[in-house]
Amino acid sequence: MKKIEAIIRAEKLGDVKNALESKGFYGMTVTDVRGRGRQKGIQLQFKGRTMEIDLLPKVKIEIVVRDEDVEEVVELISNFARTGNVGDGKIFVIPVENAVRIRTGERGDKAL
Amino acid sequence: MKKIEAIIRAEKLGDVKNALESKGFYGMTVTDVRGRGRQKGIQLQFKGRTMEIDLLPKVKIEIVVRDEDVEEVVELISNFARTGNVGDGKIFVIPVENAVRIRTGERGDKAL
Amino acid sequence: MKKIEAIIRAEKLGDVKNALESKGFYGMTVTDVRGRGRQKGIQLQFKGRTMEIDLLPKVKIEIVVRDEDVEEVVELISNFARTGNVGDGKIFVIPVENAVRIRTGERGDKAL
Amino acid sequence: MAVFELGDGMRKAVVLVTIVLILMLVTPAMAIPAGWIGDANGAKTLKENPRAPVNFTWTLLCGFLVMFMQAGFAMVETGFTRAKNCANVVMKNMIDYVIGSLAFFAIGFALMMGKDWHGLIGTTGWFLTGKAYDVSTICLWFFELVFCATAATIVSGAIAERPKFSVYVIYSFIVSALIYPIYGHWMWGGGWLSSAPFMVKLGHGYGALDFAGSGVVHAIGGYIALAACILLGPRIGRYDENGNPRPILGHNIALAVLGTFILWFGWFGFNPGSTLAADQLRISIIAANTNLAAAAAGATAMFITWIKNGKPDIGLTCNGVLGGLVAITAPCAWVTPWASVIIGIVAGFIVCYGYWFLEKHGIDDAVGAVPVHGFCGSWGLLALGIFADGTYGVYTTQPPLVRGLLYGNPRFFICQVIDVIVNFAWAFGTGFLLFWILKKTIGIRVRPEEEIIGLDISEHATVAYPNFVYSSSMESETPFRMK
Amino acid sequence: MAVFELGDGMRKAVVLVTIVLILMLVTPAMAIPAGWIGDANGAKTLKENPRAPVNFTWTLLCGFLVMFMQAGFAMVETGFTRAKNCANVVMKNMIDYVIGSLAFFAIGFALMMGKDWHGLIGTTGWFLTGKAYDVSTICLWFFELVFCATAATIVSGAIAERPKFSVYVIYSFIVSALIYPIYGHWMWGGGWLSSAPFMVKLGHGYGALDFAGSGVVHAIGGYIALAACILLGPRIGRYDENGNPRPILGHNIALAVLGTFILWFGWFGFNPGSTLAADQLRISIIAANTNLAAAAAGATAMFITWIKNGKPDIGLTCNGVLGGLVAITAPCAWVTPWASVIIGIVAGFIVCYGYWFLEKHGIDDAVGAVPVHGFCGSWGLLALGIFADGTYGVYTTQPPLVRGLLYGNPRFFICQVIDVIVNFAWAFGTGFLLFWILKKTIGIRVRPEEEIIGLDISEHATVAYPNFVYSSSMESETPFRMK
Amino acid sequence: MAVFELGDGMRKAVVLVTIVLILMLVTPAMAIPAGWIGDANGAKTLKENPRAPVNFTWTLLCGFLVMFMQAGFAMVETGFTRAKNCANVVMKNMIDYVIGSLAFFAIGFALMMGKDWHGLIGTTGWFLTGKAYDVSTICLWFFELVFCATAATIVSGAIAERPKFSVYVIYSFIVSALIYPIYGHWMWGGGWLSSAPFMVKLGHGYGALDFAGSGVVHAIGGYIALAACILLGPRIGRYDENGNPRPILGHNIALAVLGTFILWFGWFGFNPGSTLAADQLRISIIAANTNLAAAAAGATAMFITWIKNGKPDIGLTCNGVLGGLVAITAPCAWVTPWASVIIGIVAGFIVCYGYWFLEKHGIDDAVGAVPVHGFCGSWGLLALGIFADGTYGVYTTQPPLVRGLLYGNPRFFICQVIDVIVNFAWAFGTGFLLFWILKKTIGIRVRPEEEIIGLDISEHATVAYPNFVYSSSMESETPFRMK
Ligand SMILES: Nc1ncnc2c1ncn2[C@@H]1O[C@H](COP(=O)(O)OP(=O)(O)O)[C@@H](O)[C@H]1O
Ligand SMILES: Nc1ncnc2c1ncn2[C@@H]1O[C@H](COP(=O)(O)OP(=O)(O)O)[C@@H](O)[C@H]1O
Ligand SMILES: Nc1ncnc2c1ncn2[C@@H]1O[C@H](COP(=O)(O)OP(=O)(O)O)[C@@H](O)[C@H]1O
Fold this sequence. Notes:
The complex is a heterohexamer, with three copies of chain A and three copies of chain D. Chain A contains two helices and seven strands. By secondary structure, chain A is α+β, with helices and mostly antiparallel strands. Chain A has a single domain (2-111), classed as Alpha-Beta Plaits. In chain A, helix 1 (13-22) runs antiparallel to helix 2. The model of chain A has no long low-confidence stretch (mean pLDDT 92). By secondary structure, chain D is mainly α. Chain D is built from 19 helices and four strands. In chain D, strand 1 (116-117) and strand 2 form a beta hairpin. In chain D, helix 12 crosses helix 13. The radius of gyration of chain D is 23 Å and the shape is globular. The model of chain D is unreliable at 471-483 (pLDDT under 50). Classes of the chains: A alpha+beta, D mainly alpha. At the D-E interface, helix 1, helix 2, helix 3, helix 4 and helix 5 of D face helix 3, helix 10, helix 11, helix 12 and helix 13 of E. The structure holds adenosine-5'-diphosphate (3 copies).
């Protein structure tokens, strides 16, 4: 099992979600995060004084999948989250040793 | 060391927290997340037009524990987060290579 | 590749960010979390009735780095997030199998 | 957790109720011959009373301020409850005014202010037709309406976060059409409490009095709320396994304080406006007394919590201010400024200890409305019986001047005690009956899973703050593709 | 996503515009000889009319209430749109009042209320100088100003979340200086709609009427908004790939309901205040009618959504209330209370079905302003032509008394139909022209990436709720080092 | 970080203070024989002045509007500061009105409006007893109270996010009991600034003037705030290591704009109401001037930031509006509308550059109160000395008519200059002394870790928005077990 962590633009979440769903990947967990990378920050003003915010709002998607599905999910996310501009985000693949479905107590791949 | 990531119902956090505490697992980090799985979404209306929200509010608990404690913590969370209805959530076990307590610089199991 | 997850005080984020930046570690993802550990909670009152909140606001920083940079980043965070008081937080090092830059499709260390 | 879907089979019932309501409201009104009406354009009234313009100006503007208190209640109540019920709470505040306006138009006003029948109810002015189509009568209607709506809305906050919305709609109609107006008639419509010969004799020239409604408006609302809270039971999580109360924090203190200020502001319409006439110059003293009692009560509540818990509590300070306002509402025209300060100080104690008392006894009043409006309302009636200083008459500068216990008329104090008892019995009794019947028939409380997910979603299929709570979910609904 | 930087080359343009504006506002004013003025301290006016104090009191206080409606619009509009545009929305509400005040001072008032020129425009009173420096004239100016500002601000909500801020500034000036005042002159300034001999003959003694501005204020605003919405196009994400509408939830229901209450409150200045005189005691009936129509419309809208979707919808209930208020604005002084209830019920239907109709046709009115102000405004004009009951005259108790279709004057109904058509043509026509010219020249809509990141950042370089949305980013800007 | 616990040993002190306060407020009042009083029911006053009802109506309703400004201040101040201090900020706004009401009742009013003693202080009317128990006197008391409370609350915003709450309670008492009333006496209570023979001679018939309190209310508040800001030092994080200012964003722009609108609305009570009489028809011009100055200043501030940073700034636009209102407060009754526009434009510049000036010099005024109320207040006094056009007298239509520099009375301008200096010296001097003594004794600022965690938690043990900031922590406190 692997956990796929993708940090994407908030406005792309809908597309990514639908794409994953259409291939049968329904379960996921989403978190509001803020990130920085190559993308430049935003200038703000308050009472005429300016400042720069370099942590921009992003969305993190976490999906735990069977090993054999990793490639497909990574591809799907890449394709549907891409705009081609800086700030599109990153995907990380992290090993998962076990999974449990709380409702039933099922473990391993069955729990996904 | 392992990180136990549990995605549970928000209203179960209190019970889970108390159960863990009573067994000596005090440290934890909690994040507000939204998730979807088998549970169906919620219908909303706005000015008479309806929509469905399929990402529902959940709470993510992260606890890093020594290898030998993994099973106990997983059991505790499972038991206390369970309602038996869809949407109870999932637990994932993820390997951790090292831990550092920032205050003292201690590393490894001592840092937990 | 490793993911460094650091849970620190919110008011230290600025210092840590700047320190990392000055050493060339720019990319990062930040999440608002709440945590508990050795630090005691806060007492609140509402209409004269008191309660204790033991999950205190913290900030989680996630940085994925090449294996060789782990030590440096951990040191930097430790040094700049430290106040010496309980509640300074923890750093966890988690293995990452792969990374993808969504914009370009680059993989592995190049994607960081 | 259950799935929350729209369309729950209640539709037919609602259609029916809607149609009946429309017919009820409109048909009888049209049926009445329009020929036989009052002074509908005011020319005659103006000729008879050249001071009518300033009195109308005063009464209407004060009435507008009172109407604005609806916004104050909405903000206080939502501020002191949770975000997941926010839309439901403010919707209840909106709808009780909407329904109450129609109910008081159709039925309530006639029962309250119509021609007296045996000191019990009024009997004329239905639908503001016939003789009631008159500038003075309708001026009075408007002013009484906003008072009626205040009484109705008090309950909303106390029972927040658990009742069915449909129950609240029914309650709003009944309270504005029947419960409030009938008691209102007894006190202000020429009914027995104020005007029965035995009461007038007892009080030495006047029966029970209530200048602007500590009893008529606030205690009525407060004690109905008490009955409803008892029947509903506490919110999930309000008490722990051992029955110890646990605080449920309000979600928006800024709005709660805003609401408190709006109410304080509106109260300057409530109390001084109750002269219904600007030529009663006592209005200035009424305004001052109103303000002083509020301030004294607020300060008292703040110091009580500061002493008790070591830090000044905002919630009870706001409640204190409101309790002071409620307490001074009955006596405002008849007492001195310094007495107002004392009345306020006592109200500050009542608000705090009353709240803790109810809490300890398992009664979950979400915003503290029962001590504020109920207990302080009763205190206001008694305080009038104690401190009335004999400088002002019964809504007039003419004798009989109103005197209380401290100024040599203990028998008037007895009138007030009777009123306190009757007021409680009527409000608690009818309130209990109403909610008890509803509980036994359609049920008054939402299911536990509905309560946990919040009434916004379960009762209205909405969320009050989608961008904060569901943030990126909302964003993601956007099907936009950047080119 | 693009980087949003301050300093976008518009600076020079803005400097220029600023200087021109200052010169425009100040120079002519100073140029006019101050010697030849009206009754600037009111001594003469008081002597001539001993009732002036109460009439001024009434008119001014009602005007203040109307001014406060600006806050209501701001809260409703921001409450019903997204957090990322919150600062932009409230800023627009602030700035249309700011710019509108200056424009109406310099130009608008003279065009509207100055000496009539061929029934088309007014021609005196520029910059409130000369004879216009007079207590009565300026009292009128103030009252008309707050009405003008109401018309202007209506558009803001409908077009929210996508127009350029600079476009909105220009629009605010034009509408307050030209579009509103000219039509206003036709109805209230002695212009042709109300006073041309052929209209007066047609109506049997009076031409088209509009007591407090269902047409003059609301429908004008509503139809300009319609034109602007059409030219702007829908917000990104408002329709899916198949063109089906998708809801975009408002971000703060508590503020939206607060705003609705503030508007309802302010409307008691709007309608009753439009007598401009407290000695018209009809004001009490106007207040009652206003309230009843609002309540009836709110209840209707609530029941419609309840029946349709199974749960009562808060957004449309608020819109319903506002639609009822708009509809009763024209007829409020001339109809009975029960007719007001009917007018409100119809408005409730118009609000809901009007909103869904526009939505289905691809017109994205972010807060529902077009059905509320536009459609209900037209309905108000017609309702006046139907229900006027002949108990009250043209802002006076004297004949000719105003009668509608049901009370034997069908020709007056025709006047109103003419007005509805003219009103729509003028507002939609000039509004379309204005936004069309702006679209073809400077462009009226922000770029898609600006819209997605939100107008707060792209137009004002700010965020409305930094501690919630960017929370710890803000915190982290603190260079504090704990010792 | 330290643990924040309730119960910090201050309890005994607070108990003591509470008891002393209660005794102070109540005992003397009761001691005074109630027999010898003023016209407590108004019958005599009405007979003597048949216009009293309309004047009372006007004065009281305007006073209510001014009272409502407290809500405006609360919203502006909390909107422009951070969420973690939100409850503290609004609590301060509540409590200064609460404490101020009691202090002004007991002491302040007598010092300000009592029988003059050598032009320095008033000496009668303590506790509103004796001759002060009179409808006219108490009408005046109420109106002056709400002004006093405005002055007091100005400081709250400037010093936000760092002072101890207990210090603020003490400050509130002192300013309302002593600092404000004494200066107020000099200007409005028959004291030396307005009435000493040498001043009257200097001004050609009148001494220094201040129609509604640019100086008495706003500049007093503003300069006390300046002193307090200097003594407190800037908030942690307001300046970087190199001393460069860094913005600390306000947490709720919607509420800040709402607050600005509430203040603007309330100002229509503040300025026009200051005639204390509706038979001064100049009230209409006062209202118009008030509005025009606000609009001109708001537009100016917007354009300044637009030009400077490339995007229009909301915070300074709101401050601009408020600065315009402050500036027109002194001259509002004595200048022309076009002069009001100029006064507003200048105020817009003062607000922006004043704010940046202070910021650059290390003075951290959290909401910009010093430039808005202090600097614009002084400008208002000067502007009166420049633009007064000789059409209106000293709160009357009778001569001497008030003329300024441009209209031939340069010596009156000198009166105003004297006033500006005295005003600054008094406010800054007494304010500095007060906060300096408090600093040296009990300390005026919370500890750094308290400031970082926020004053809501450290001073009140609460959080203003628990569902957003601590969200699921709150939820989890629920001991509910689903079956
Ligand atoms: N090394 C990293 N570790 C963790 N998160 C990262 C890292 N680099 C980038 N990110 C996340 O990815 C987001 C996009 O990165 P960015 O460099 O702007 O995109 P791109 O590589 O597509 O140009 C950032 O906002 C941040 O949340
Ligand atoms: N494959 C997955 N990867 C990550 N998170 C998941 C996955 N599947 C489910 N989840 C999380 O678990 C939560 C509960 O899942 P759900 O399927 O509704 O519960 P259950 O399996 O108990 O019926 C979801 O809301 C989501 O947050
Ligand atoms: N075992 C754990 N697993 C996950 N997070 C933890 C764990 N222990 C502590 N934390 C996180 O670290 C934060 C700081 O822990 P704490 O024990 O208070 O600090 P310190 O060890 O520096 O005294 C906590 O608030 C929590 O978010």
